[in-house]
Amino acid sequence: MLNSDEVKRLALEVGFDACGIARADCLADDEYPLRHWLERGWNAEMGYMGRNVDMRLDPRLLVPGARSVICCVSAYPPPTDTGGTAAFAQTRDYHTDIKRMLFALRDRLGIEAKPCCDTVPIADKHWAVRAGLGWIGRHTLLVTPQWGSWVNLGELVATEECDHYDTPMPSGCDDCGQCVAACPNQALTPDGPPMLDARRCTSYYTTPRPRPLPDGLDTGGYTYGCDLCQFACPFNRLSL
Ligand code: SF4
Ligand code: SF4
After folding, report:
1. Residue 115, class by beta-carbon neighbours within 10 Å (0-12 exposed, 13-18 middle, 19+ buried)?
2. How far apart are CA 238 and CA 240, in angstroms?
3. Atom of ligand 2 at shortest range from CA of 137
4. pLDDT of residue 24
5. Could you say which of 3.40.109, 3.40.630, 1.10.12, 3.30.750 is the CATH number of the domain covering 4-158?
6. Which residue ranges make up each domain of the chain?
7. Which residues are catalytic?
8. Were 94 and a residue from 121, 152, 221, 222 both cysteine, which residue would form a disulfide, CB within 3.0 to 4.6 Å?
9. Residue with the larger pLDDT of the pair 145 and 88
């Protein structure tokens, strides 16, 4: 049995900024409308998002016998100006650091667990919500109260039970909608479950595999990625 306080203490010790723990089960459609998004074709040419759908929603299919999803947050420096290169690409590749910290955490806990960082089919943002670390903003990213959406995520999917599981916090978006208004391409849904139409998002065309930009889309001055919807968010301005 994992002690949740100890897990969180060790997560901070190996370098993460926050940690929460969720019970491993299946995400509901209204928590993560993946099937609805795929039906609309909003994944564009990201065919891989249509594979392993059940596994993306249920980490027990990724790790047989999984009982706990240990979600870890690593904050990165907010950008100081818009345009050019998106913030996430201005710092060194986060995958290396996140994986190193996940392996270190697993070693210190002495448990069987699968480290996940981007390359594994798991709904990382949605598990972070379950683990009480933030909520899904209308721009579809995780919003944390402390660092806004300027965060990277990593998870350990463990077969160990935990003595306490965190619960989601209420969304802080209310009727804000500033990210929706800031998108020059109307790529974000103004109501209903937050969803992004990748076919209208310039970040999709410039990262990670550049594709020809369709006529009529506005890059807002970005050549790699796009942070316009994140810059508009009051929770990101708080972290500047
Ligand atoms: S990243 Fe840019 S183009 Fe994509 S949804 Fe946000 S503001 Fe719109
Ligand atoms: S800009 Fe407003 S609606 Fe968008 S994620 Fe931030 S708080 Fe939510």
Report:
1. buried
2. 6
3. 5
4. 98
5. 3.40.109
6. 4-158, 178-238
7. 118
8. 152
9. 145
